[in-house]
Amino acid sequence: MPTLRNKVALITGAARGIGADTARALAGKGAKLVLIDLDAAPLQALVAELGDDVALAAAADVCDLPAMQRAVDAGVAKFGGIDLVLANAGIASYGSVSQVDPATFKRVLDINILGAFHTVRAALPSVIERKGYILVVSSLAAFTAAPGLAAYCASKAGVEHFASALHLELAHLDVAVGSAHMSWIDTPLVQDAKADLSAFNQLLAVLPGPLGKTTSVQACVDAFVHALSRRKRRVYVPRWVGPVGWFKAVVTSRIGDRAVLPHIPRILPLMDQEVAALGRSTSARNVALDDVAVDPS
Q1: Cα(106)–Cα(80) distance, rounded to whole angstroms?
Q2: Which of 20, 75, 191, 297 has the lowest CB atom count within 10 Å?
Q3: What is the largest CA-CA distance in the chain?
Q4: Closest to 84 (Cα-Cα) out of 198, 229, 297
Q5: Transmembrane residues, as ranges (predicted)?
Q6: What is the 3-state secondary structure (H, E, C) of the chain?
Q7: How many CA atoms lie within 13 A of 115 on its CB side?
Q8: pLDDT tens digits, residue range 230-264?
Q9: C-alpha distances out from residue 130 to 10, 86, 125, 186, Å
């Protein structure tokens, strides 16, 4: 049976949510951890919980390739190399394309796409040397779009194809690459959107079938740990996300649009009004971390 004992896993977005709970689960299976996040305080608390013989904290912005390289180098120096990569860092913006703050829109693309590239680029020499595995976190949003979340949807479609191209590049080197596709997970990202915007809650309510349902973090963690141990090509959470991907052409056709289109003239202007009232196009948490990224001092 595959084992994670003494494997070294690098996780971005590790300070809370899926990243933190996956780190705990991997530590329970004997893995060593290189944990990266911009939010230093909860990251350090997590390492204190797990033990510094098990985990290394590196406060770094995934948009900063030299910082990511320093974090990887520190992990390699401490644990000898990197076997597994979970490119998990990601944020979302709120608001229509005509109203969303352009800088926030760009920040989403930078973190979600360039951040995945920087994570992989920095860790790749060690992963190749150890014939490891890379799991890039995409989303159900790669298969079906949502109004008011254009940056998030575009970025998750982008990282899916990034992972697919990477898979082709690395297969002959015995390095495996997968992409993970989840529906709404009860993470800080989704919790913040629900708290900030009644329009987001209304959007979830009109999405057809299970598309508007929120799944537990634990279900996602279980799937990620299984994928990391088995070097899975695709990860779907819940499992019904897989068929949505298979039928993407139908989901994004006029047939698939029918359930949502009638509600957009009501929900999207409300979202834009609420975003304007907030004075920000993303969560307060992300705004605070953006300030850290601009001025690390």
Answers
A1: 35
A2: 297
A3: 56
A4: 229
A5: none
A6: CCCCCCCEEEEECCCCHHHHHHHHHHHHCCCEEEEEECCHHHHHHHHHHHCCCCEEEEECCCCCHHHHHHHHHHHHHHHCCCCEEEECCCCCCCCCCCCCCHHHHHHHHHHHHHHHHHHHHHHHHHHHHCCCEEEEECCHHHCCCCCCCHHHHHHHHHHHHHHHHHHHHHHHHCCEEEEEEECEECCHHHHHHHHHCHHHHHHHHHCCHHHHCEECHHHHHHHHHHHHHHCCCEEEECCCHHHHHHCHHHHCCHHHHCCCHHHHHHHHHHHHHHHHHHCCCCCHHHHHHHHHHHCCC
A7: 28
A8: 999 999 999 999 999 999 999 999 999 999 999 99
A9: 13, 16, 9, 34
In this structure, what token pair is assigned to residue 62? 């995934």
**Amino acid letter, 253:** S
Q: How far is residue 272 from each of residues 94, 117, 201, 266, 282, measured CA to CA in Å?
A: 8, 31, 14, 11, 12
Low-confidence ranges of the chain (pLDDT < 50): 296-297
Rounded to whole angstroms, the Cα distance separating 234 from 108 reads: 23
Q: Which residues are catalytically annotated?
A: 152
Find where tokens 């649009």 sit: 257
> Cα–Cα distance between 62 and 79 in angstroms, integer?
21
Q: Which amino acid is at 103?
A: A
- Output the six-digit token pair for 135: 């799991």
